[in-house]
Amino acid sequence: MSEGRIVDLGRADYEPVWRRMKELRVERKRGRIPDTLLLVEHPHVYTIGVQGDEGDTYPEGIPVYHVERGGKATYHGPGQQVGYPIVDLTPRGRDVRRFVHDLEEMVARAIEPMGVSASRVEGKRGVWVRDRKIASVGIAVEDWVTYHGFALNVSTDLSYFERFHPCGFEGRIMTSLERELDRKVSLDEVRPDLVRAWNDLF
């Protein structure tokens, strides 16, 4: 489903979405599409960024991909809202740091109406609720167009983070909206606020 600059892919395997975001990056560079946000929920998958994975081992049967984004290893799976912004940074001053800041701010703004106060933490990538990490952020930039993005834990089974070192941290630092609110939360509940925050900032 496509609505303006938002493309909701529903639940989809990681590899074809990875290919699609790279294709869209080229389309954005050529000016054939506007800045676009892909929203998706992945089946279980681990991805490892350019900084590696601390020598972790991963559960048998779950795919592992080495990808172009910054950062180390992370997990994607059911109950997690993943977003891949395809954004041309040239009109935004080619400021990668500002873009990452705005992406973190977007997620924090999106979950605030639910009663979860989150923020950035100096020197730590992602979105944090006090000392717990609720969203991971890792991007790649090529020809000044971004791809990869953020992963917000909504109703994610956090035990999958305890089997490795997410972004180099101990897995127990991870949290989710369900854990913070102590109630069931669906991706459908979160998505409209993410879209509003995206439109506000991008």
Structure description:
The chain is α+β, with helices and mostly antiparallel strands and 202 residues long. The protein has a single domain (2-201), classed as BirA Bifunctional Protein, domain 2 (2-Layer Sandwich), CATH 3.30.930.10. The protein is built from 4 helices and 11 strands; from the N terminus they run ββαβββββαββββαα. The strands form 2 sheets. Strands 1-2-3-7-11-10-9-8 form an 8-stranded mixed sheet, sandwiched between helices. A 3-stranded mixed sheet has the order 5-4-6, with no helix packed on it. The protein is globular, with a radius of gyration of 16 Å. The model has no long low-confidence stretch (mean pLDDT 92).
Structure in a nutshell:
The chain is an alpha+beta fold and 202 residues long. Helices cover 26% and strands 30% of the residues. Strand 8 (119-121) and strand 9 form a beta hairpin.
